[in-house]
Write a structure and sequence with these properties.
Strand order of the largest sheet: 2-1-3-4-5-11
Strand content: 15-25%
Order of helices and strands: HHHHEHEHEHEEHEHEHEHEEHEEH
Number of helices: 13
Radius of gyration: 24 Å
Distance between the termini: 62 Å
Helix content: 40-55%
Largest sheet: 6 strands, parallel
Structural class: alpha/beta
Amino acid sequence: MPTMADVARCAGVSVATVSHVLNDTRPVLPHTRQAVLDAIDELGYTPNTLARSLVTSRTRSIGLAVSAITNPYFTEILQGVEAEVLDHGYSLLIADPHDDPVHERKVVQLLHERRVDGMIVAPSADPGELLAYLGRHAVPTVLLDRVVDAAQPFDQVCAENTAPMSELVAHLAVLGHRRIGLVAGLPGLSTSGERVAGYQGGLAAAGLPYDERLVVHGDSASAGAERATAALLALPEPPTALVTANNAMTIGALRALRDHGLAVPGDIALCCFDDFAWADLFSPRLTAIAQPSKEIGARAVRVLLDRLADPDRPIRTVRLPCALVHRTSCGCPEEAVVSG
């Protein structure tokens, strides 16, 4: 098995120069770096990651803790994280906190004990213990998708939530809807609160009153949304349009509407926050807010790497814009969607 010394002889450089190329511990001239990389490729040299971590105090690994990895939204975020991590020569360790504060704290501690250089975490609705642990151990961390108190010393990356939800509600109001229901996410999550605020803002902009009976919580899950939608439909004056606050809840709402024999959009209009791959395959096609999921994941990695390179840089929160994907479940005819 070739050694670092073999690589140095093949490239015509010192062992120290090979080490600097492998570990990015000192600038190396481009032609020298290329000679080392060519020698590594020619000899089939594989760096000893464990030994390198002992020298540099870095494992070149990142921990990712996100719940519901099977959710298409988080699957795309994972793809963005993984591609960016590998592009920068890091490895990725993944854990699912299940949106449970106790389990969340446990899996993050396990990732920390594996000596990851930093973490990307989507916090639960009650992240107090998690944040205390990360702060106490000074773990370089980027909070993903959900924001916490600005006083917390953590970088954060997430999508815009309030304005896109307002846009969705305003669109339904323009179509003549006056009773617009919202199936909101799990209480306590920042995304849930911001989307409810956006819903209220959209009503206000359209001159419509806020009726708290039209807001029900589906707890960010399909089964919860199915129950919540049934509750809305049981009102003396049920909504004529419905907005779901994530893609899992869209599935639950569709089940409830089917069970009640209601057609979309003939009997009730439906829009959702979170686009997903098969939303265009439903009949009718689902009008949705599309989040830049892969870019959210990739940006979180870049923000974390910036933090690792400069631990004293100012804390920042990065918000990425969303897009309204106009289809037909809102009640617009196909020709209006195509021309729009």
